[in-house]
Amino acid sequence: MTDTQSLPGGSLMGEPSETGRFGEFGGRFVPESLVPACFELEAAFRTAWADPAFHAEYEALLRDYGGRPTPVTECANLSKQLGIRLLLKREDLTHTGSHKINNVVGQALLTKRMGKQRVIAETGAGQHGVATATAAALFGLDCVVYMGEVDVERQALNVFRMRLLGSEVVPVASGSRTLKDAVNEALRDWVANVESTHYCLGSVMGPHPYPWMVREFQRILGAEAREQCRAVLGRDPDVVAACVGGGSNAAGTFSGFVDTDARLVGVEAAGGAAIGRGIPGVVHGMKSFLMQDEHGQVAEAHSISAGLDYPGVGPEHAHLAASGRADYPSAGDEEVLRAFELLARSEGIIPALESAHAIAWVVAAAERGELAPGTTVLVTLSGRGDKDVAQVMDMVNARTS
Amino acid sequence: MSLEDHLRARRDAGRKLLVPYVTGGLGDDWVETVRALAAAGADAIEVGIPFSDPVMDGPVIQQASERALHAGATPGGIVRALSGVDAGVPLAVMTYYNLVFRAGHERFASSLATAGIAGCILPDLPLDEAGEWCAAADAAGVATILLAAPTTPDDRLAAICERSRGFVYAVGVLGVTGERSSLAASATVIAKRLKAVTDRPVLVGVGVSNAEQARQVAEAADGVVVGSALVRRLLEGAGPEGAAAFVAELRAGLDG
Ligand SMILES: Cc1ncc(COP(=O)(O)O)c(C=O)c1O
């Protein structure tokens, strides 16, 4: 048995404080109309998460419907090229094609428990929207997904998938017309319909209990990966990396390794680097790092990846950064595109543009000698790239023409 | 006189209270609009400091905020402009918490006090998170007006009234700001629930859109806050005179 107390981060990634704090970050900064719903959700989650019957149902669904456990794949070709040992946790192989399904199955079960008939969601890349629409179809719930107009256009395939699944997709025309604005609109809907509606938030962000609850629903990813790494490597990896938008795939991954000696790396998009370029602020119900101007107006993020095109980040990541347990470098659009192509060609795996950020960081870190030869690296491949193929095709064509 | 003393005195004299809302920085003549509203019968005026991500606001106030920000409105600029207004009735600002957090609690509170602004409404700072700000605002002599919602349970309602200063802002309908064709039943219900637990002035806002609705809800409440219906008129070019005419209409409705 490992002694979790003496290892770095042994006290990290547990339950937040009563007010939903991870260190100084988190909280419940929402309009009064929503506060009782946050309390209700917290109570429902606590009860469910302490109930073996809930766990059994959640795990059975993720197994029989969601395709878990997902494998860990050792990338022989790319490892050789980079001089390291690279393993991928394959969330791209889940039903609906990303880690988002883990969270959504949990929240859909909770929605049932709370007796609500309608769910709403925000989505950037559309993966969370698709996962929510999928669960809504399975459980017979009404579902409305808010999506920025820019993302509706660049993730058109996922918009159609959501509509096929019977959900309504509402394009959001305000602000930067991306993920931030989709969250605003979902919150506005929730304020109006809070008594009948569960807000199925897609990442470890928002007001308490979401950052904690979503991390718990993603914990399964990290727990599997830890066992699988031990089976493959005979020990824990040296480095564990994942991309960070709101931070849910990274939080799930890190939760499996926070009490090991592994270096934890969350890779932000250069144009959406809340930790890299932001300072503490409060938006979307949480206190966290936030890209903003000198007056406190929220900045617009800019990234080719719709899922990482967000000026904030989940509060637990702010805390992990502040405490030094994890670090949060960023990757730019060009290197991400190269990593996308590199993984496709060297391993036959087309990653989501979001996940390609984590690959891009590994490539750059290996090339500049930050990863010593033989370093073992686990990357969570949070999703598959089908949704991005049309967008990448345009970019590649533009580059060669 | 504090915001609350002012409002209590007027209420106790038998007057129904009218607090119109305008977005600061909307149009070159917005400061003039503030003065015109006071002259037209407002008992206090709520001025919005525009924020990039106003989650409690519907399309009208979102659009007003966007326009004002586009025209270069800043929190400091709006507060400075208000310091010269001398409207004759108390002013309160309404904004979102990040602008306060970014400036720093003490600094923001003292800038309001220096400008002679009597109150502050932060719709995304609920009771449980309001402690630090309230302490700074109290110390600076600025009233923190808290919101109570139709979903707020009774015990929490009492705690909100206890901690609120100036008045208690009763959210009349589940939803964001915006006009409604009729007054929601929830408006009268929340007003009555609040009146049963507090002696502070109780004003209903969100979804109060015209003189008739104001009159109706003021049967249970001490007064109303009217925002979107007024801001829509300003967006349509009503100007200070048009705004004043609408407020006079509301006044007449309340005075019966
Ligand atoms: C495949 C994929 N990875 C990552 C993300 C980013 O979300 P998070 O940081 O919560 O994992 C998204 C979000 O849309 C996504 O679709």
What do you see in this structure?
The complex is a heterodimer of chains A (401) and B (256). Chain A is α/β, with parallel strands linked by helices. Chain A folds into two domains: 22-64 and 100-210, Rossmann fold (3-Layer(aba) Sandwich), CATH 3.40.50.1100; 72-97 and 220-400, Rossmann fold. Chain A is built from 15 helices and 15 strands. By secondary structure, chain B is an alpha/beta fold. Chain B contains twelve helices and nine strands. Chain B has a nine-stranded parallel beta sheet with strand order 5-4-3-2-1-9-8-7-6. Chain B is globular. Chain B is 48% helix and 14% strand. The chains are: A alpha/beta (401), B alpha/beta (256). The A-B interface holds A 19, 27-37, 174-175, 180-181, 184, 187-188, 191-195, 280-285, 287, 290, 292, 294-298 and B 51-56, 58, 62, 66, 69, 74-76, 97-103, 123-129, 146-153, 156, 160, 171, 174-176.
Task: Assign a percent range to the helix content of chain B.
Answer: 40-55%
CATH architecture of chain B, by name, is Alpha-Beta Barrel
Number of helices of chain A: 15
Taking pLDDT < 50 over at least 5 consecutive residues as the criterion, the unreliable ranges of chain A are 1-10
List the helices and strands and how they pair.
The complex is a heterodimer of chains A (401) and B (256).
Chain A lengths: L20 E2 L2 E5 L5 H15 L2 H13 L7 E3 L1 H7 L2 E6 L9 H14 L4 E6 L3 H13 L2 E7 H6 L1 H9 L3 E5 L6 H15 L3 E3 L10 H24 L5 E5 L4 H8 L7 E7 L4 H4 L1 E5 L1 E6 L24 H9 L2 E2 L2 E2 L1 H15 L5 H15 L8 E6 L7 H12 L1
Parallel strand pairs in A: 4-15, 5-6, 5-8, 6-7, 9-10, 9-15, 10-13, 10-14
Antiparallel strand pairs in A: 1-2, 2-12, 3-4, 11-12
Chain B lengths: L2 H10 L4 E7 L6 H10 L5 E4 L10 H12 L4 H9 L7 E4 L2 H7 L1 H10 L4 E3 L9 H10 L2 E3 L1 E2 L5 H10 L4 E4 L13 H13 L4 E4 L5 H7 L5 E4 L1 H8 L3 H17 L1
Helix pairs in contact in B: 2-12, 3-11, 5-6, 6-7, 10-12, 11-12
Pyridoxal-5'-phosphate binds next to helix 5, helix 10 and helix 14 of chain A.
